[in-house]
Amino acid sequence: MSEMTELERGEIIREWFTLMQGQGALVNGDTTVLFTLLFGYLVVAYFVGKDLSKTQSIIFTVLYMIAYATSLFNIASNAMANVAFTFPLLDVCPECEIPPLVTPEGTVLVFIVNLAMLTASLYFMWSVRHPKTE
Known about the structure:
By secondary structure, this protein is an all-alpha fold. Helices cover 81% and strands 0% of the residues.
């Protein structure tokens, strides 16, 4: 089997970068959805959280958590797909630089930060609904 020509190598590298950019666009789209959900939940919590009945609050919070978890799962799965794309790319192009977040560790870090934001938003709703009396 003959060596790969520079033209073939360049074409393979370009195609892999195109695939990775597509996955990155999916992550960005899901991140936009996640931040929209987070902002909407915080706005509702701030303005009407104390006026919601317990049932309304539970339904709203459960739906929020399901939508947030779905978006977070999409972000993680698309990010891990992008990580998987780096291995064959680096086989062909060892000198190519991969961004630090396009690693398994980077994906875990993003996941943990987003879980912290979910926890903080739930605490915010709880603190609005259960104000301290002084």
